[in-house]
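Continuing the series of single-chain predictions for the mutant panel. This is the parent chain; the variants come on the following pages.
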Amino acid sequence: MEEITLYTTPTCPWCGKLKDYLEQRGVDYQEIDVSEDTHAANEMVEVSGQRSVPVLVKGERYVIGYDPDSLERMLQ
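Parent structure:
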């Protein structure tokens, strides 16, 4: 199974919703707080082209924000 990475910040309400969503579905993921890791923040921008969080990455695919329909498609 491909590794799933979730880029977040502690003050982001949508990040919390997305973490709850993943946990309810039993999805394992690695969380990276981009507010404390400049290298990871730059990596997130390279992958998504965006500075906004949350960004969920699985392989070459990513979802920006909390979008349940896109998340379901990605996680299948």
